[in-house]
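Structure ticket #2291
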Amino acid sequence: MKTKITKLIAITLLAFLGLSNYLCAQTLFKDLNPGASFHSQPDQFMEVNGTMYFHTNTGNSGGYWHALWKSDGTAANTVVLKDSIISTAVGGVVTLRANVNGSLFFSVNKAGVTAGDTTHLWKTDGTVPVLIKTLPHPGYPGTGGGYPQNFTVVGNKLFFDMWQYNGRELWVTDGTASGTMEVIDLNPGNNGGTLKYGGSEGKPMVSFKGKVYFSGGTTLGLYELYSSDGTVGGTSLVKSGTANPENFIVYQNQLYFGTNGGTKFWKTDGTTAGTIKIADSAFNKATIFANKMFFTTNGKLWKSDGTASGTTLVMDSAGTVIGANNNFLFTSYMKTLTAPPYYETRYWKSDGTTAGTVRISDTLGVHASFVVLNNKMYTGLTMIGSTQIKGFWETDGTDAGTIKFIPNSSPGNPFVFKNTLFFSNTDATSGVELWSYTPAGSSGINETVSSDDFINIYPNPSTGIVKIESRENKNYSVQIYNLLGEEINLNQRFNELDFSNSPKGIYLLRVYDGTKFHIRKIVIQ
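Resolution: structure written out below.
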């Protein structure tokens, strides 16, 4: 699974750190499987409570060796947590899933006549992993079609959907075997009560106001907006007529989504009366930037304040948002050509206005993933037309600022941990191993970027209720993120945030005063 680093973590890390943009050495971080012909192939990086986890996959003798590793950011303390996770036939192999109350949850899919079609659900708090439960899904024998998917954290629970004898339905786990169960059989029989999506692109499930919202239904082919707290009685239809809801995003304490294949634009406050259609227009691949929602329809970049009148076109043929820093959105658009290579990828940067949306460097070609550190964006191996361009790239959105370093390499998608980029890469002496790159000045946390006095947040640390005061009596909006960059939805009452049901740890508050962002760290004990 490719690690997906969203714009949210990029912005929070950038604002939280405020560091220099100068380059320094990039190097092999640790040879996890020594020998030029042996490869560890590290991937699926995830941070949980200040620890970086990742998965390795080696086949030294034609067999499998899947291992779970953890790291504190030093080579000496980058160690195997669980070796030989699986050595039999596999479907989806090993997948790191989520941070649930400070523990990493991961799954292992098995397939085949001997193994059966099962998923082993595990968890670890940084010590020896514990098997939570083995989940059989015989509805699609031998195909992997029944595997759990769409994992979504809500408070201290992890929701997902999975196929068993009665079709694909909503499941939940609290990290115990007895607490891992099907929530409800929405569509009795073997038709399934949740809509199956391939991968996570459609965002078919989301955490909002202490519940999971998802595309569910009691009739095959008719899926609408449902919510659940993990119990039968707490699972219900939010509103009918919301056909195939997807692309969920939380914005200003409302949940926005598309329906009818992304062709309708809706929002909800969680109630039937508060679930309304905004416009008969498409809503896809939304992201938050400069206190507005930006989304793409048919290659067009739009922005919205959540109302029909406040939804306007930014630029035609600007394409899909691929990342952002504190100042600009970055988008890409695939332009069709009449001659070989028959297409080209065009890049744009935008400050959210039409005048401020301009073409930028096309040098990067087609990429798999961007991450942001120190207001610059990084990506691994790219394609220009049908040509593979090896190297690791850095860009500030200009031709002059687009630099290829670590040339002639084949790096994987980078992951930001403790101000350093970690990624897989290969060389002649070590094989495919774990590399790192640290921009100069990124050796420690610098909170001075957030030291203005616009807001007062107290108590900090807190055991639950956090109050926010504007010292200038300005209106403001607040977004809350964990250190994975995931937005956290809390009960909010005017100037209070309720962390009572949230895991202990560090959170980032992103407060927008209508002009700029103010980042604060809050500790929940």
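Closing remark: The first helix runs from residue 7 to 17.
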